[in-house]
Specification:
Layout (H helix, E strand, L loop, with lengths): L3 H10 L4 E5 L2 E5 H18 L7 E5 L6 H10 L3 E4 L6 H11 L3 E4 L1 H7 L11 E3 L4 H7 L14 E6 L9 E5 H15 L7 E3 L7 H4 L1 H6 L3 E4 L7 H10 L3 E5 L1 H14 L6 E6 L6 H11 L3 E7 L2 E8 L1 H4 L7 H5 L4 E2 L3 E6 L12 E7 L5 E2 L3 H7 E2 L2 E10 L5 E6 L4 E3 L2 E3 L1 H8 L5 E11 L3 E10 L4 H11 L8 E4 L13 H10 L5
Parallel strand pairs: 1-10, 3-4, 3-5, 5-6, 9-10, 9-11, 11-12, 12-13, 25-26
Antiparallel strand pairs: 1-2, 7-8, 8-18, 13-14, 14-15, 16-17, 17-20, 19-20, 20-21, 22-23, 24-25
Helix pairs in contact: 1-2, 2-3, 10-11, 11-12
Length: 510
């Protein structure tokens, strides 16, 4: 069940189809990609003597060589450790050491900062930079046949963000990732040969994981010339390449929609935009649908069940005449086909419809556990269910609405306040561009609600009046902190920990 068989099949059946493009310029056909991959795998296996199950780390910005590095590792029977390109070299050093990575692939823009730390990693045998002479030499090695891997062998070792301590390595098997790919076809979108996935978001995360569906169909893979997310570039690619598909964080979707609306740019070259990784506010998806039409699908997942907990179909998003449309577009959809999802109380029992509890999931896509961390594994996986740490409520039709991460719930005066509910109200003000609501310690109330707002021509008094009009008095922010921008990771997700640190160091303005 080696994932590399997806590439083997695509190259055998459709050898001359374009596989990898930089911008709209073709680089390799599927035959060429498979040949390069098999040779690089040969060097890893025979040249370096790596054994099945050894770990290969990939610390690269989006790069034309990213796919061939991933598939070479699987082809050789190894496991991939994709590393966030925005991490500090010291954080990367920890991941390399914890994973016991034997080989590292690092892009040239990141290599210099990491080089001084590599000598302290005894398991690391070799570091390669795609494009340099050593890498080209490795590509000249004799080809090898793909290694056999069992379904439950480790394929992808993904390290969590580590916001509550050291990051943990999520073990995803070949079976997990095949299940994720099946869910893409069933619950998200079908892929045709002339579709093209563009990696505008980091390939080390969810965007890169969606490669499997497009390799399975021998469709096109585009690395933007910019290497990342640029709305004007994406619009241009949608016109020159056509049938563009991408995975993006909600903040990226919002920027793209605003660009298209402001510039009256065409949207007909986009086929599917899958969004997830953070909350998409109801007014933002409504604006997206109005501007670009029914091209959107929402997914909800996490590293421990990658991209595979729930999905909100494009048909549902487009069903404006449904009496509960407004509620449904604010949800994250229904359970994907190969998993079970429920909302549970602390005792593990399923809660009644509409009650808020922790989201739990089980199925073929759920991780095998945390790398060399049995304590954390036992805490997250209980009686076959993954406890996600996300709070949500499910309606009678199976639509799940997320509230917040359990650690982000604000408890003020003994009452639970879910930041997203407050954020949805504040975003109704036309002057508010972005907002993040957090709890701040308070001697009297335990915590008080603080809203960090990005916007113009908006006052605390106006926002307070808006909250009093739409939500209970105890939920409204006690303080408003106006900022130029919200701290985010490279995936566009707001870093609430950074916001809390910022407010701890300075007095909020009200």
């Amino acid at each position: 069940m080696n994932l590399a068989q997806l590439l083997v099949r695509a190259a055998r059946v459709h050898p001359e189809r374009p596989a990898v493009l930089v911008g709209d310029r073709p680089q390799w056909t599927y035959r060429e990609l498979a040949d390069r991959t098999s040779r690089l795998a040969g060097h890893l296996r025979n040249g370096l003597g790596l054994q099945p199950g050894d770990r290969v780390a990939v610390y690269m910005t989006n790069h034309v060589a990213y796919l061939e590095v991933l598939y070479a590792a699987w082809w050789a029977g190894l496991a991939v450790v994709p590393i966030n390109a925005k991490l500090h070299p010291r954080e990367v050093e920890f991941i390399l050491g914890d994973a016991g990575a034997a080989v590292l692939f690092v892009s040239d823009d990141l290599a210099a900062g990491l080089q001084p730390l590599l000598g302290g990693l005894p398991a690391l045998r070799r570091a390669f930079t795609p494009g340099d002479p050593a890498y080209e030499t490795a590509l000249a090695a004799p080809s090898v046949a793909p290694a056999h891997r069992a379904p439950d062998d480790l394929a992808w070792l993904f390290y969590t963000s580590g916001t509550t301590g050291r990051p943990k390595g999520v073990m995803q098997t070949h079976r997990n990732l095949y299940a994720m790919t099946s869910c893409y076809f069933i619950d998200v979108d079908d892929v045709q040969a002339d579709d093209a996935i563009v990696y505008a978001a980091p390939m080390s995360h969810g965007a890169g994981m969606y490669n499997f569906a497009f390799v399975a169909r021998a469709a096109r893979h585009i690395v933007p010339a910019s290497g990342g997310f640029d709305p004007a570039e994406l619009v241009a690619l949608s016109q020159s390449v056509g049938r563009l598909c991408l995975f993006a964080a909600p903040t990226m979707v919002k920027r793209l929609v605003e660009h298209i609306a402001t510039n009256r740019a065409p949207a007909d070259g986009f086929k599917t935009l899958v969004y997830g990784g953070g909350p998409m506010y109801a007014q933002d998806i409504q604006a997206a649908l109005t501007t670009m039409g029914p091209r959107f699908v929402q997914i909800y997942g996490q590293g421990e069940s990658p991209m595979t907990i729930t999905a909100l179909a494009r048909e549902t998003l487009d069903e404006r005449t449904h009496p509960r449309w407004a509620e449904r577009i604010a949800s994250v959809g229904v359970a994907q086909t190969l998993v079970e999802v429920r909302v549970a109380g602390p005792d593990g029992q399923t809660l009644p419809t509409g009650e808020t509890g922790e989201v739990v999931v089980r199925g073929e896509a759920v991780m095998a556990g945390y790398w060399r961390n049995p304590e954390a594994t036992a805490q997250a996986l209980r009686d076959g269910w993954l406890w996600t740490g996300d709070m949500g409520a499910m309606d009678a039709d199976g639509y799940l609405t997320l509230k917040d991460r359990s650690k982000d719930v604000i408890i003020s005066g003994g009452s639970n306040i879910y930041p997203r509910e407050v954020e949805e109200v504040l975003l109704r003000h036309p002057g508010v561009r972005e907002v993040s609501v957090i709890g701040q310690p308070d001697a009297e109330w335990g915590e008080v609600v603080v809203a960090c707002v990005v916007g113009s021509e908006v006052t605390a008094a106006a926002l307070d009046a808006l909250c009093l009009e739409h939500i209970a008095r105890f939920k409204r922010p006690k303080r408003y902190h106006f900022v130029a921008e919200l701290p985010k990771n490279n995936y566009g997700k707001v870093l609430k920990t950074a916001l809390r640190d910022m407010l701890h160091k300075e007095e909020p303005t009200c």
